[in-house]
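From the methods appendix. Each design record in this collection lists the tokenized structure first, followed by the designed amino acid sequence. Records were kept in a plain field format so they could be parsed without special tools. The example shown here is representative of the layout used throughout.

RECORD:
FOLD TOKENS (465 positions):
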């Protein structure tokens, strides 16, 4: 299930170590425990450790300067530290050290492990080989690791190098403007202007002069010559946003500029040459508009030399945790009481929600939660009501309530789902009882020996019996 992150557990308390180790082993991680007296950084290096989970007091006692060294050993290494460090501010300022309080809560721990993995994905995307610089610039602004997004990044990188006109289509909030800016940034025009024009926001009768400029006296109120957006974008990029809202008379004029690369300011007698790259965007279906004759077919073909479609968020759900964690880090920055993460249940709800407002809606939600909740972990009850009715989850159900169980659209392997369900209940019981098997067995209505038998069968090494 996981691309096998290797996790090192460093804690002198055997009970906690076993609990954490069993919990993460059944989730598919490679777990190692730091042996007594073993050198910490050597172990991290030799065993290719990605994540360290540690009791902060323990680690500080064996490697007093670990905070200063941790980032230099491996910039992708994440340390999840629990307990009371006595020196919270310093830890909070290390971007690859995540903290959580004691007593340890396994759901919170799991949430931080997920966050650590998203952090590592982000960092490693920054250093993709090949078009490293371009990828870095892109991944700084556009986040995504799903196949369609990686394909999109490849396309943007290629397209940027040309001068071709680009038409970006996609639902509201999918990142069309971000993509347009990325194309400009990655092109040789990036030293010149990126000029956006929102064709839907400017009144029809003003749009022509806004685009092409006007000469003094050409209409009432034209007191002086004024340059239009085309002229301002000379040698740069003109971003025609909401192009589907442009009226027919202007569509003709735009077509002429695209054909001849020259335009006439309102009231001028001479045309003016211009060297601009056009990127247009719309959340309307332009082909349908062409069919209904609301949009000129010839203009449509001129604009869509390179068509780019940004898929809605619900078609790339694996980007959701990455986006959530990135926005979380962004909105958390420079706040002292930072929100730490999302519980597994809360994240599953977000992953199964349909996101009609796409990335913008998700960004706004995370910002609101950071402001309103401010610290700790987000549980389902912290989410606004509309996010609570997830129907499309491909993950197995995690609560015992019958009504929560939904058969995923693509079907499910019932044996592994039941197994996973059982595992989670067992782990929750052990978590709640601090690893005490007798009490956990009581909670599960099992004999203690049956519970131990199950743990063995599931290869959940769990202390000595
Ligand atoms: N892949 C992404 N990574 C990070 N942030 C994103 C991504 N996609 C969109 N956003 C953010 O979501 C918000 C909406 O993006 P943008 O304005 O580019 O969308 P849009 O498609 O132009 O929307 P609309 O159709 O409503 O104009 C912005 O704040 C943007 O930064
Ligand atoms: Mg937009």
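DESIGN:
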């Amino acid at each position: 299930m996981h691309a096998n992150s290797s996790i090192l557990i460093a804690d002198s308390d055997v009970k906690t170590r076993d609990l954490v180790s069993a919990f993460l082993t059944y989730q598919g991680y490679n777990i190692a425990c730091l042996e007594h007296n073993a050198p910490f950084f050597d172990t991290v290096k030799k065993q290719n450790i990605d994540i360290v989970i540690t009791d902060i007091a323990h680690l500080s006692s064996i490697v007093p300067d670990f905070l200063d060294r941790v980032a230099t050993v491996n910039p992708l290494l994440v340390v999840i530290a629990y307990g009371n460090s006595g020196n919270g501010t310093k830890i909070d300022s290390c971007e690859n050290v995540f903290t959580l309080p004691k007593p340890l809560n396994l759901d919170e721990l799991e949430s931080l492990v997920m966050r650590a993995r998203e952090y590592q994905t982000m960092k490693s995307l920054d250093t993709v080989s090949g078009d490293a610089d371009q990828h870095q610039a892109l991944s700084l602004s556009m986040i995504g690791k799903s196949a369609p997004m990686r394909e999109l990044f490849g396309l943007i990188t290629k397209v940027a190098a040309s001068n071709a006109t680009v038409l970006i289509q996609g639902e509201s909030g999918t990142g069309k403007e971000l993509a347009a800016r990325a194309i400009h940034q990655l092109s040789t025009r990036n030293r010149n202007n990126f000029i956006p024009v929102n064709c839907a926001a400017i009144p029809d009768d003003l749009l022509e002069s806004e685009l092409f400029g006007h000469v003094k006296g050409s209409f009432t109120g034209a007191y002086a010559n004024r340059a239009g957006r085309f002229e301002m974008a000379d040698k740069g990029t003109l971003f025609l946003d909401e192009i589907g809202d442009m009226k027919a008379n202007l569509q003709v004029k735009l077509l002429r500029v695209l054909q001849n690369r020259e335009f006439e300011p309102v009231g001028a007698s001479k045309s003016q040459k211009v060297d601009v790259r056009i990127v247009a965007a719309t959340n309307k279906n332009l082909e349908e508009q062409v069919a209904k004759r609301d949009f000129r077919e010839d203009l449509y073909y001129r604009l869509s030399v390179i068509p780019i479609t940004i898929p809605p968020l619900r078609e790339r759900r694996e980007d959701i945790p990455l986006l959530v964690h990135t926005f979380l880090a962004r909105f958390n920055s420079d706040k002292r009481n930072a929100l730490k993460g999302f519980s597994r249940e809360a994240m599953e709800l977000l992953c199964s929600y349909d996101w009609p407002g796409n990335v913008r809606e998700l960004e706004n939600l995370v910002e609101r939660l950071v402001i309103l909740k401010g610290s700790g972990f987000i549980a389902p009850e912290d989410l606004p009501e509309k996010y609570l009715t997830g129907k499309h989850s491909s993950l197995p159900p995690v609560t015992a309530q019958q009504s929560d169980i939904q058969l995923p659209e693509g079907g499910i392997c019932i044996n592994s789902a039941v197994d996973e369900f059982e595992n989670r209940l067992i782990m929750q019981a052990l978590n709640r009882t601090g690893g005490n098997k007798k009490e956990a067995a009581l909670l599960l209505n099992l004999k203690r020996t049956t519970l131990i038998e199950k743990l063995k069968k599931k290869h959940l090494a769990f202390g000595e019996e």
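APPENDIX NOTE: The longest strand covers residues 277-282.
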